[in-house]
Amino acid sequence: MSSLVTRLMLIGAVLICALLPALAADDAVQKDISVAIFPFAERDNQVKDYGAKISDVLNAQLGATDGILMVDREQLDKTLDEHHLNLSGAVKAEDATQIGQLVGAKLLITGAVFQSGKTLYLTAKIIGTETSKTKSESVKGTVTDDLATLAEQLAKQVIARINKDGNTLIAAQTTEKDAVTIINDKLGKADRPSITINISERHIGATTIDPAADTEMAIIAKDTGFTVLTNSAGVKPPPLVITGEGISEFATHLGKLVSVRARVEVKVVDPATEKVIAVDRQTVIVVDVSEIIGAKSALQKATTLIAQRLLPKLVTADAKDKPADKPADKPADAPAK
User: Fold this and answer.
1) From its phi and psi, is residue 238 left (phi > 0), alpha (psi between -120 and 50) or beta?
2) pLDDT in tens, 254-287
3) Which CATH architecture has domain 30-169?
4) How far apart are CA 298 and CA 295, in angstroms?
5) Between the chain's N and C termini, which has fewer beta carbons within 10 Å?
């Protein structure tokens, strides 16, 4: 009996070890998450000056956590002031995308503190700037409890929530390989039209060396079966023309790293009809050790997301513009015998 139990335990251990890597891969939270914390709103005079103290504690606790990068408070205040934004705990989810792009944060943490009778409440809201999805945490104590202790408890809960739901709050990372697979699955064996690509780009405050957006669009188009032409003179029918612009710029410092944002806008025109077939745009934020490399990565990421949505539309549009096949002529009636 004991040998049977031992064997069952060994089998169970082997199965667990085999499953752990898969589970870890599914649940792994993105690393180097950029986070900005706003001063907590004070809901009544009884908690005056509590908001800033709570946000300071959260900044310290989250800043000491591996995988979380805090937006510099001075840089945050400067950016918001330049854009005439005076925000506290009242940040709305629909405003989070714009704020995140301005300060280079993927998560915003806002909150409030208020007193009801002899009970003190601290509430925090975690907002994904790319998804507008939110999660909340709260703690409560008595008015005689140490505020810093309550704030530390809230910080631990916020960190646990980010570890648990970070992949829900932050947009999924689509790689070039993912985009190619998705596009090919959508298009199947449909004929791909010929295209030309001309996406200019610039990095504010620096010289652009290589066109990351143009290159990325060309790579994905070729890998999904499109014919990419550099010179379309004399080609009949004329290829579809993809044009656009990519802009990148420094967002903020995140310790020894930098946050860079980029925006890519493209449109596709059929020169035969001068009809605009598709228009798309994407803004992303990337964290890197180098501003220029981060800018290139951001432009590449934005273009990957656009290509995934845009290229299937070109095949659909091309197919619609093709004349329908004429039905075969019916055989003439046989002469009467």
Assistant:
1) beta
2) 777 888 889 999 999 999 999 999 999 998 888 8
3) 3-Layer(aba) Sandwich (3.40)
4) 5
5) C
